[in-house]
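tool=predict chain=A
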Amino acid sequence: MSLGVVLFFAIGTFAEMYLLTIVSASISVINTLSLIMFTFLIGNIINRSWGKEYFDKMQWHLRSRSVPGDDVLNGSVLALSGMFLITPGVITDIIGILIVLPFTRFIFKDITESIVKKKISNGELHYFFKD
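tool=predict ok
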């Protein structure tokens, strides 16, 4: 694992912990834990609806070297939103909620589409990890 990845996760973890302590100081520990469990539940519901099916479709499009349609981009971005909501933390929850909202989702769909086009042009045939 590269140093950049380790630093990213270390800094991200400390930022999430710091923000969770700020939130728990302002709304209480019990309410913070309840909010974490609520976003976990919402993330699970989203992942059951859009999870593996759309990631498999995205993988198929990459292997066939074609840009996925709007429905596949929408579903895979929503599945990613579910993963962000399952992860406990303030930053990940904000990103997950922004993806769920229809009027901000297009930003993440555009980012995903540009990543997919870049992977196709580079000859990479996997979305996240190799099988």
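The mean pLDDT is 83. Helices lie at 3-27, 29-63, 70-86, 90-100, 102-122.
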